[in-house]
Amino acid sequence: MSKVSDSEKHAIAIDSRKLIPAELNYDIHDKALLGIVWSFLLSLSSPFEVLTYHSSLQYFMSSKVLTCGQAHWAEFLSEFCFSITYCPCRLATFPDALTRPEDVYTERGENFINKNPMNSQQLIKQDEVQHSRYFAVKVESFSNLIDSIQKALWHYPQYRSILQELGKGKSIQDYSLDSSSQFLLFKDWVVVPNYPTIQLRILQKHHDSPLAGHPGQEKTLKLVKRDIYWSGITQFIKDYVSSCQQCSRNKNIHHKKFGILKPLPIPNVPWICLSMDFITQLPLSNSFDSILVILNSILSDRGPLFVFSFWTNLCQKLKISRDLSTAYHPETDGQKEMVNQILEQYFWMYVSYNQDDWNTWFPLAEFAYNNSDHSSTKQSLFFTAYGRDIQFESAHITQDTPSGKLSIKIQSVQQDVKRELEVAINQFKRYADKGRASPPVFNPGDMVWLSSKNIKSTRPTKKLSERWLGPFTILKKVSTHAYHLKLPSQWKSIHPVFHISLLEPVKTSTIPNWHQEPPPPIIIEEEEEWEVSQILDSKLKRGKLWYLVEWKGFSQDPERSTWEPAKNLKNCPELVKDFHSLYPDKPGPNSSKA
């Protein structure tokens, strides 16, 4: 409260109170209005002027839109004679100081008045300091870096002469000495000599530091050029950032995927090339749990069933050439992958709720697939192989065709199919190559990054793991689209041949004396598997079937034989069958308690 005396306002009374919890929820407008209402509750009766820093309160008494609470206050205030005048915050110094009396804020008064004279809010309370954890990063002092720059400048004649001239008070265009630190400036930048050691220290501060965060080329350049300049700075930073292994390992690649589509050759007649794959992990159906898919050298993926030594020896005996697709590149045989999907979709439609009868639907699924027209050939497989479609109704079966004419017709059909396949493949290749780039050519000895997309490591989450692993050395060029890499000896379960789309060239740096720290080893997620030599015994334990297993390589050490549950021997059914053939009375899968 103030009173005018000698044409000036003088404070004559000061009072305040603490807001109750409900009032703390008021918005700023209503809190300021509450102060006016409360002041009238002090039984002030003389006409007076109210000063407020909330400008909208000037028009409160004439406002037509009010809340219930505001309407109640307006009715109360109408009994008094007063005026409301707006006072800018910059002039309301005394009320701001008086809103924090120590006796009201008993718990925080010490912090507000004594220990925090600037009235700023503390992020960490004093009693929490000893329990707090602080994150610190090691950053080179800029002053130390500047000292090194100044000393290095005197070793370069062109800069030495500039420093000498400026020291004598002479002026040189675009060059000057900082008035306080005596740094040599080019325009507004600190001049750095062409000294790689100092330039590397600058980049480590402005790119590698956690305070910088490994930005890209343009952002790093702008960050450095805020304070520093040297001749050729743009090319140096471009070389540094493009060769940074941390960036290469952890950043996504934005160019098109390497490797234009390279279709497999089209055979002249059926059954020359077979594409094979297994659909596994199906529920048991009449003792079956997998499907071998054969499409028409044998091409397969690198599943364990196809790299098994038995399969290798069988192909050698029968003089069958095998072509295994590259690791993690199912596009090598997209037709086979599509057939797998069609078969699975067929079973989804017709199998029972318990999914234990899919094997009974298999002949019909095969018939439906072979009798449907294909988008590539515009004909069914039956028509391609036999020269006619198979009809559902016997009444529509045509008369027999003489063998000579049928042979000619089949040959004609197969030639038509080949032409249709060529058109379809070329069309598919044209669309596929729009999102692909011509692959770079690597040679043995080159270093490449390997995509981590298909490799599971032991790190907790893939979201925060490296995008690229390596770098790895190329040992052999398998084809224009596949390369053999030198992988760590611990990665025994990963085939070392990879498609070009999973590789990225390592950019080498021309910066001298730049040695980057090697990455920590990546431990991949794999299960160690031991090979069973033979089964020695079986037993039932708590209703579960167990086998006594002799491990390969430990036949001379009986103590190494272990009891294993039957589920652990699912990969060696032949040994289980041989054991029960020799010992039919021993507990087996069909035992009543098993």
Explain what the structure shows.
It is a single chain. With 594 residues, the chain is of the alpha/beta class. It has 6 domains: 2-99, no CATH class; 142-243, Endonuclease III, domain 1 (Orthogonal Bundle), CATH 1.10.340; 260-354, Ribonuclease H-like superfamily/Ribonuclease H (Nucleotidyltransferase, domain 5); 372-432; 438-505, SH3 type barrels; 532-582, OB fold (Dihydrolipoamide Acetyltransferase, E2P), CATH 2.40.50.40. Helices cover 31% and strands 17% of the residues. The protein has helices at 28-40, 68-77, 93-98, 109-115, 142-153, 157-167, 196-208, 217-224, 233-243, 245-250, 304-307, 309-317, 334-350, 362-371, 381-386, 403-432, 573-582; strands at residues 2-5, 8-11, 48-52, 82-86, 175-177, 184-186, 189-191, 228-229, 257-258, 274-279, 291-294, 298-300, 322-324, 436-437, 447-451, 468-479, 482-486, 497-499, 503-505, 532-541, 544-551, 562-565. It has a 5-stranded antiparallel β-sheet. Strand 3 (48-52), helix 2 (68-77) and strand 4 (82-86) form a beta-alpha-beta unit.
Distance between the termini: 94 Å
CATH architecture of the largest domain: Orthogonal Bundle
**pLDDT averaged residue by residue:** 73
Structural class: alpha/beta
- Percent of residues in helices: 25-40%
